Input
Amino acid sequence: MWAQYKGIQVIGTGDFAHPQWLKELQDKLEPAESGLFKLKDKWAKPLDAQIPTICRGPVRFMLTVEISTIYKRQDKVRKLHQLIFTPSFESARKIQAKLGSIGNIASDGRPILGLDAYDLLKLTLDADTQNLFVPAHIWTPWFSALGSMGGFDSMTDAFGDLTKHIYAVETGLSSDPPMNWRLKQLDDFILISNSDAHSPSKLGREANIFDTDFSYDGIYKALSDKNDKGLVSTLEFSLKKANTILTAIGLVRCAGTPGTRSNIRPLLCLRQARDRGGDEPGRNLADKLEGGKSSVGVPIKISYLCLS
Ligand SMILES: [Zn+2]
Output
């Protein structure tokens, strides 16, 4: 319902590694466009009936999960959060089974595992080559790839020879693309922004706006191919600009129906996470002046909004 109120067309399921949640997803969702899922009519109709007609629109789900890894590398404890997007339940089940053999996946929607992030990336790619692995909120001090306390100085330090399989990174609620453009090492990555929502009403506080095929493949291409123009912009949450209140419905609502490429569509991932760090992106790693631009070909237009 919140997705429709806010004009969001694709949301992440979050937590697909959790046994009960995965079961519920399999029970309540059915395939829609390739790699995307929709709520079965039995569940969708009673909800749709409560939505004002002007707000109604298709809502699709993409299978996503956030994993917390805690491990020791080079005598330092590392704590990284990362996102996995997958196009199928088959792949989700493979990942779930593998993670279940490593640690407890039933205690939390975002499991905490004693697993090197490198190995998590490897098993993600092994499950399906179309899976996307995205380092989450990369500046959170304690829980991210570049975090000052639990992270590394570079993606390559964290992911070694597999770094080339990471195409996008999540800037997180506490940073925006210009802050990240100050690091040459991030020029190779597409910058995305997700809502990191704990509750449905927080959906859309950050989001990615796409103009692409309405399918997992379309989104995958937009997030993995720097020459693809599918990712149009990100919506950024800004505490400083909290007076910029948007109702969102008029602003991010898309027109049209799935199946064409001509419409702007917002995508965001509903995820569960507890951390929202205040680390200054670029801390001592920035090597470019403020006001620069990314060398990546994805045009980023930033719209700041505060939806919560
Ligand atoms: Zn997190």
